[in-house]
Design brief:
Elements lengths: L2 H15 L4 H8 L3 H8 L7 H11 L3 H18 L7
């Protein structure tokens, strides 16, 4: 699975778990709503600054965010949805 898709999925899942709107997170992050929607959809490659801003808006640390990404990536690798090069 593409890294940008995993990043977007984790952001979307955390936002939904916290009951926040896309507009709220985008506004609190200081980024454009259109860009934020692309980010959640896996169509944007966020900078470190954007990751820090979004995680702050979501109320999680960047370390927690990276842990969630690692767990999500591990799930896809174990489930066979992603094949690693031989």
């Amino acid at each position: 699975m593409d890294e940008t898709i995993v990043i977007g999925k984790v952001i979307r899942n955390v936002r939904r778990e916290k009951g926040l709107s896309q507009f709220h997170v985008a506004s609190r992050s200081g980024i454009n709503l259109s860009y934020y929607c692309k980010l959640e959809g896996g169509q944007a490659n966020p900078s470190i600054r954007v990751i820090f801003a979004v995680t702050h808006a979501l109320g999680i640390s960047p370390a927690q965010f990276l842990e969630l990404i690692a767990l999500e990536t591990q799930y896809f690798l174990v489930s066979g949805e992603v094949s690693e090069p031989a």
